Amino acid sequence: MNLSYKEVKRDTAVQASKPFPKHRIEEWRGKAYVYVCILVLIVTIFSIVYFIAVRGLTPFVSGGVGVGEMLFGKVWDPDAEQPLYGALPFLYGSFATSLLAAAIAAPLGFCAAIFMTEMMPKLGRTVLQPAIELLAGIPSVVYGFVGLSVIVPFLRHTFPGQGIGIMAGSIVLSIMILPTVTTIATDALRSLPSGLKEGSYALGATRWQTISRIILPTTLPSLLTGIVLGIARAFGEALAVQMVIGNAPHIPDSLFESAATLTSIITLSMGNTTLGSAHNNALWSLALILLLMTFVFVFIVRLLERRAKR
Amino acid sequence: MSEIALYTKDLSVYYGEKQAVKRVSMAFPSRQVIALIGPSGCGKSTFLRSLNRMNDLIAGARIEGEIWIGNDNICDPQTDVVQLRQKIGMVWQRPNPFHKSIYENIAFGPRYHGVRKRAELDEIVETTLRKTALWDEVKDRLHQSALSLSGGQQQRLCIARSLAVKPSILLMDEPASALDPISTSKIEELIAELKKEYTIIIVTHNMHQAARISDKTGFFLLGDLIEYDDTQKIFTNPSKKSTDDYISGRFG
Amino acid sequence: MKAKTVDRIATGVIVAIAVLILAVLAGLLGYLLVRGLRHISFDFLTSPPQTIKAGGGIGPQLFNSLFLLVLTMIITIPLGLGAGIYMSEYAKENRFTAFVRLIVEVLSSFPSIVIGLFGLLVIVNRFGLGFSLLSGALALTVFNLPMMVRITEQSLRSVPREQKEAGLALGISRWRTITQVMLPVALPSIVTGTILAAGRVFGEAAALLFTAGMSSPRLDFTDWNPLSPTSPLNPLRPAETLAVHIWKINSEGLAPDAPEIAAGASAVLVITVLLFNLGARWFGRLLYRKLTASK
Prior knowledge:
The structure holds 3 protein chains of 3 kinds. By secondary structure, chain B is an alpha/beta fold. Chain B has helices at residues 44-50, 81-87, 102-112, 118-131, 135-138, 151-163, 181-194, 207-213, 231-236, 241-247, and strands at residues 4-15, 18-29, 33-37, 61-69, 72-73, 88-91, 169-173, 199-203, 216-221, 224-230. Chain B contains 10 helices and 10 strands. The longest helix of chain B is centred in the middle third of the chain and has 14 residues, at 118-131. Chain C is built from 10 helices and no strands. In chain C, helix 3 (59-90) packs parallel to helix 6 (133-157), helix 5 (112-126) crosses helix 6 (133-157) and helix 6 packs across helix 8 (174-203). Chains in contact: A-B, A-C, B-C. Chains A and C meet through helix 2, helix 4, helix 5, helix 6 and helix 9 of A and helix 1, helix 3, helix 4, helix 5 and helix 6 of C.
């Protein structure tokens, strides 16, 4: 090693353009390494999309199930003599829980962000921010467990019904996505030019007037980004929701009645069906819907970010 | 006239569409100190940073023209930039020692370039630290972090670090502007000492400093080299009016 | 005058919400600790679970979680560092880079259950690794990789440009400058980020249901031969982790003390995650101090 190096050095001293000095080889190896890592990323994402799409499309291609039948069918009964693959109850459950969760978390998160940036920055930084980071770190099964043993009994005693259902799922999810919403709102508020606020205060506006007329409209795209990211996370969350929603595959009449989501039905049924069966393939179609929704959410976030930059 | 260490011919530097340096031709004699002065944004730092192709790092930066060191035009795409940079040391405005020990800061370069024996490395560390008048201050704590040194010491360590890979030219980009007066005068003494062995090209905002330490001075304005002559002449009898205006403090 | 009243009300509401959030967190932790700590004992942490009798523990699950975390990190860290170095140092501003950026964003947005399903389809079935620690580790790698890439990229980007220039100016190759000059500077924040990511991996369950499996074979903790099927170190055995265990006993637990076990296991999980959080900050600061010798 040492010897060969000295040779290289002598050569480079004579002619600087020797084709493979040590540093070129080193650089080449380093580049090869990072490109392999990037390749792994690319291959991973394409195989995820490819394999799930192939499975998920089987019911439509060879299973004789119509796309409309799945998206708008109200009855999910894959094991019946005449199997029905209506996924509307799950779509409804997923959208209802995640949108409701966002509706709860958005105002909370926005107020927390205002508290941390406009009202008590010091207290916010030392107490509220670490608290919110902690909330983000708590595993989803723990949220599910607490939801099941605290929120569900509470709802059962307070409202008619069993306590399980969309409301329970939404409450659990809203706590889970609160950190996402808050963090992004806080970043947006912190990056506001200070002249903007001072100008408003100088005109004699109260804090709330400044917040509602100046801060809120200027940061709206960023706030929406946080909310969409929150919805995306809630939409894909599986176990915490599955534990508290009840898992009845029908469209519920109230928020306090057992329901199901895309993720909950996949979690429950995937292990009990054999790979390749019609029932199993239908579950992969649901997974494909989840996957496509991810792309939709990423697309919306990108649009909002472009708007926020302007 | 002494021998020429490096010269540029019609050197232009662009940042995207903007031309930051405009067709500058300049020759730097060996073992002298050449100061580049001018108001902020005049292109002097950009010019300096193109001499070791450090501007390559900036996205959108582009060089036209020629830079000759000996028989090599370093703007030639064939040039091995990595090997080139070993011959040209560089010192920055803010001291930027590596996050390593004092010893490692200096030994890192030579070790990379093939010095493996501990005794040789020890010797390089000692010689360069002596050259930069730092040895007596740090010899008992060579293995402590370089970041534990004061700002002035850090800057001298950075100079020592660049000397350790045996360059012949040193580029200095306002090396004393972030330092206190005492540290500054130490750096200036050091430059006077180092010019016995090295060609030093220094960018400075401080005209007294340029007058004190340099043999030749070049005055830049808006990317043009306005005037380049012996320091004595530039500061006592400049031939261009804008040079005179700048030196006498009428703008800048 | 009216504006002032509105302002006062708004201020009150905002403060109340801040207090509410703190109360939720305090209630959550308090509930878990009060209910869980009672159940945590040395025996609980080390003994195997019982299916129908009371008195089971979480020993194997705890071990599985830790072992799986180590396996995952061994795979993720080199990949994440490499891809992160690419993103911050080698990527030019072109379409390919924009594409890679999009991929990292999409990958980090995939629901973990989808990643688990992909693991089931490709790693468990197609590669034939079965329900195993290795399958779980690979699924968690997919889950964790985007985060590692971001951590590395951001940490490297925050290294002052002069550090990189100083390395290059000595005639040192770009690769060496990155690995030996810039990485040491970025290390404290990379380590902090990695430990936080590890906390997330430790609590993940959805990606593991169909990859690492929901059962754990009888483990013989005296057998440390990784090839033996009952050895805890065998990477090809199925392994239920702590998080999966909590989910399982909540949905199908038959033991009479299932709620207590779930509470105890949840408390253990949360305490571990808390330790990861605090540890990340503490260790990052320690490393920073050590590397910079500042006080």
